[in-house]
Design a protein that fits this description.
191 residues, mainly alpha, two-stranded antiparallel ribbon
């Protein structure tokens, strides 16, 4: 991946899962402001839309893994074969969900909004970088994803549901989500 520094902004950057509660509130509020500011922009490509779900079904994913597994076995790549078998077991255990993209609150978004994309001064975001992934997504996907990359407990594989709810609530002080978004937040993100 290549990038060009176009301007220097004074501030700090943080690694994944290094945010305080105040920083999480700041990020959730700013994401809602970004969504509101971008809502009327035209020409933004679709990121997660109808086509996304076509290939995100356990049946399809197992089909895709099978030839890759066979190739790893044929090549004697035992570690790769074991990893693929592990992924296949996870896919087999996944319940099959059917999402109606038209029921989600969708719109223009950053597409890669997370703690490592922020320039901080203290606990205040002074800038958001890397707008190369701008697209249309269900807003809740970007909200949940940004939380998971910020919250310290997620680094250990845990999600504090109260903290996630607070993050979503902070977003909703400025932005809008509907009951379908909330009901499907976890399912959509992990699917």
């Amino acid at each position: 991946r290549r990038f060009t520094v176009q301007a220097f902004y004074e501030g700090s950057a943080y690694a994944y899962n290094e945010s305080s509660c105040h920083m999480q509130k700041e990020a959730a509020s700013l994401l809602a402001k970004i969504h509101n500011a971008m809502k009327d922009l035209d020409g933004i490509p679709v990121g997660i839309g109808e086509e996304f779900f076509k290939y995100r079904k356990p049946e399809y994913m197992k089909e895709v893994y099978s030839p890759t597994l066979q190739q790893a076995v044929d090549n004697g790549d035992n570690d790769i074969a074991a990893a693929i078998r592990s992924n296949m077991r996870i896919v087999e255990a996944m319940p099959s969900y059917v999402f109606d993209i038209n029921k989600f609150s969708c719109g223009n978004t950053h597409g890669d909004y997370m703690i490592s994309q922020f320039i901080w001064r203290g606990e205040e975001i002074k800038g958001v970088i890397d707008w190369t992934c701008v697209c249309k997504h269900p807003y809740i996907w970007e909200v949940v994803r940004s939380y998971l990359f910020m919250a310290p407990e997620v680094k250990q594989g845990e999600i504090n549901i109260e903290s996630l709810i607070k993050y979503i609530s902070n977003y909703m002080e400025i932005g809008r989500l509907n009951s379908y978004d909330i009901k499907n937040a976890g399912k959509l993100f992990y699917y």
